[in-house]
Amino acid sequence: MRRRLLVLVAATTTLVLVAFLVPLALLVRNVAADRAVQAATVEAQALTSLVATAEGESLALTVDRVDATSRFDVTVFLADGERLGAEADRSPLVELAERGSSASAEADGGREIVFAVGGPGGTADVIRTFVPDAELRQGVARAWLALAGLGVGLLLVGLVVADRLGRRLVRGATDLAAVSHRLGRGELDARADTSAPGELGVVATALNGLAGRITDLLREERETIADLSHRVRTPLTTLRMDAEALPTDEQSERIVGGVDAVDRAVTDVIQQARRRGALPEAATADAADVVRERAAFWAVLAEDTDRELTVDVAPGPLPVALARGDLEACVDALLGNVFAHTANGTAFAVRLEPRDVGGARLVVADQGPGLPSGQTTGVLRRGVSGSGSSGLGLDIVRRTAEQSGGGVRLDSPPTGGLTVVVDLGTGPRA
Question: Does pTM surpass 0.70?
Answer without folding.
Answer: no
